Amino acid sequence: MNQQNTAGEAAKAVVRRNTEEVQGGGNYALFDALFADNFLDHTPQPNCTPDKAGALGLYKTLRAAFPDFHADIHWQRVDGDVVTTFKTYHGTHQGEVFGIAPTGRKIHFETVDAMRVQDGKITEHWGVANLFSLLQQLGAWPPAAQA
């Protein structure tokens, strides 16, 4: 393996650890080690700041809403120092999320995200999540008819 392939595999491993151990396992000490202090989220979720604290807040919100939150990673690709991942998140809705009271429903939704990894730390994020599908599964879309 050449040096570029080795760096790419190491970057994929950082992103995979974030997905599996932080998002899926709630290891927030590891979050602090994996994310750079100057992390920037180019596509923050509603009511989240585009920084490291915002990302951590989102992760904690998702784990509170879906205590069994986890992802199946379908594939990862590396282009320079950016790792793109396609995954499906799964969980059981047991806490409020997006203003929706717990339903007890099992959910899943797809996400594609790109994370820049520099010196072993995640420095930037771009992502698209199928939140429309999530809202449908939680019974929040289409909205209830107005009386």
From TrEMBL:
The lineage of its organism: Bacteria, Pseudomonadati, Pseudomonadota, Betaproteobacteria, Burkholderiales. This is Ester cyclase. Pfam families: SnoaL. GO terms for biological process: polyketide metabolic process. It comes from Variovorax boronicumulans. InterPro entries: Cyclase_SnoaL-like, NTF2-like_dom_sf. Transmembrane segments: none annotated.
